Amino acid sequence: LYVLAGSNTYELIRINLPGALPSISALEHYNKNIDLKMNECHFRFDRLTEHLDTINSKNSFVGFIPSHHKGIPQTSSYQTDDFQQLQERFMTIDKSSLINVHMVEPLLPSLTTTTVTMPTQSSKSRPFLLAAYGTDTKSIAIDILRRWIYIYERCKLNDIRIIGYSADCAGKYLKAMRLTNESFSRLPNINLIDIYHNDLFEIDLPHKWKTWFYLRPKQLFLCFQDGIHLAKKIRNRLLSKHAQLFIGKQSVD
């Protein structure tokens, strides 16, 4: 985008999409680090050797659905040095039709205060791409929950506290959320409260909410439906002539 559209267009889009694009200075610093500097008539054979060594070190191919162990995708699932084996895999193994992305949105101290102010550029948190891999629609709720617990435990080892997870409104994600929060559903052989009793945080709900808003007072992490998907569903129901919406006992007309 920066190369094709120019610095002015890039900066305009970056300002209107906070946190989505790095600053121009960050791009320039990145270009310096990956050694994009070239001189006329200079053949970069040394850089070519390093580049090929990086590619040939694993001989791993993407595009397939990675293997999973207890719901956790395994890296370098498809490695081969044989072209015939690679061709056979392309003909017999299912290719991924979707991509699963795990993004981390940090919570800054300035964003957790009760004072309502316009956030400055320095106070905006920058999302971080934790992982991405191909997938299909065959994963189930328990696999999703295992991935959430895996991410939580690995982050804890690095002194990072996961507050919650947000996902779309697909049924398997909603079921994983219900199992996590024990919202009219419970895991038969796993009790997160007992296993992680030292890591729980307490939630103090307003007294008036407790008659209609169900949320366990102690949680390991919270779960939310993605705001964009949720807003679309609410919009469709508000425009529907047949659906009825309630907030507590109050009808939404």
Automatic annotation (TrEMBL):
Protein name: Uncharacterized protein
Organism encoding this protein: Didymodactylos carnosus
